Structures
1.
Amino acid sequence: MSLEVDRVTKRFGHVTALDRLEFAVPRGAIFGFLGANGAGKTTTMRICLGILEADEGAVRWNGAPSTELSRSTWGYLPEERGLYPRLPVLDQLVYFAQLYGAPADRARSEAMRWLVRFRIPEYANRRAEELSKGNQQKVQFIAAILHEPDVLLMDEPFTGLDPVNLALLREAFLELRDQGRTVVFSTHQMELAEAMCESVAIVDRGRLVAGGPIRDLKRASGRRIVRIGLNGTAGTGWLDTLPGVIVRSSGVDRTELELTDGIEPAAVLAAAVANGSTVTHFELDEPSLETLFIDHVGRPADDGERTLAS
């Protein structure tokens, strides 16, 4: 059982927003759908939902074309909020659930349970426009899941959330996964995607440029990363002069280096000692998901493409 995006192509006039895009998401997985602004993520989700029609290819859930599925199969959290600003929160949550066939009484009790869990039960009878953006985000999330869909499509669900609310939403994602639901979400927060997802699809200009289990993507890159922490009067500037070493990023207490062919981690450690530095941290690791993402998507696209395919 899986969600299949099978060679989907979508054009807007002369712009190809999706170009034979293809990936699969297993049932009961949290899947990261990653790409720069305008890569085609929102367009793909709208095709899954039937809001847009693909020019070529198909989307299937458990082998059935998405065009033949009940709308209740899907839960959708759009990047732009879709709440009625003047309608009380609880009333519109019940209304949205009823649109998918959920009984009003059950929808009301489940909505209140989620409002309590998200620490906003006092807003049940407040108008949506009176809530902060973060709290509106949580209400929108509840609206997407109340009818218990099989597949959840979440477009930038963590944008604008403070650390506490981000943790609450992340816990909710994990619970839905454990219930067997399939969660596909787009995000620009690579650390979050790396922590939550086993597999990802990275798209650029409507094409799949990398995809599969994160572990396999890292190993396939063949890159070696050293994270080193240094104390001493020599600082860290001398790392730029080491042959075979590329400084990827510098933080307050650690510097990330990439080692090219011909240099071993021990040579970096020896150079640090020779420069009179005290090594407080030394770690050999694979590249981060953020590094892999930049490798594949780190170049600009045409303005028209960025505008039409978000």
2.
Amino acid sequence: MISRRRALAFAAAAPLLTRCLFDRSAVRVGSKNFTESFVIAEIYAQSLESSGMHVERLFNLGSTQIAIAAMQRGNIDLYPEYTGTALIDVLHLPPISNSRAAFDVVARAFRQRYGIVWLTPSPMNDSQALATTRAVAARHGLATLSDCARAASRLRLATIQEFLARPDGLPGLQRYYGGFAFRQIRTYDIALKYRALLEGAADVASAFSTDGAIATDGLVVLRDDRHFWSAYNVAPVVRAPALAARPQIAAVLDAVSPRITDRTAQMMNAQVEHAQADPADVAAAFLKR
């Protein structure tokens, strides 16, 4: 999947996966290397701890491929994964916009191929998106991706380089919707594309639907009215042997996952990325609520 948002440099949290000794009595919770993954992994870890389990955190693993390799080696027992990432980047299958259908495909394939079990997914769907300001949306009549496809010749797009090449990025939008011939396209670092939007240097920005900036800056996410983009619901994925050894993991995480919504994720991401809160504190506040 496209690099989702600015990664945090928590050097102290980065695991040394080549080390020989792990605490085999602990549930080893991993995360990838971006804000949302840190926060959700903390929610999982703290939930397990509150149920009496001993947890070892091995966060900031890096890419999806590294996380899956760590699972296969037994270096971690579980981590948060997205159905769309598993579907497109791991299984190399076409996007599936229906959340239930996407989950069923990846759950079955991961169990058969990797011995990894998908637990209950969250309603939070961190799908790809296009976002704009309320002023631009009103000026150009933008509410849906179809609206944007038609108006693109008058609009400037701020995006990251990868969005311009991926089949589920701009090329896919152009094939599926038609149009999307933007007046100007400029690429930015992940953290700077929203600044371009807010400062008037762009009219539309590529986004992910749970980005913190959507909440803090009051942005409008254009509705995917023709259901092009894949579902990206997050869920705990657990090594089957770890789950067999501690079946209570499923009960604990299945109870918390339904509480993680799009709006909740936006606010938690914003607290970390804009207010510099610690992901562990943000996760604790979420669980207290």
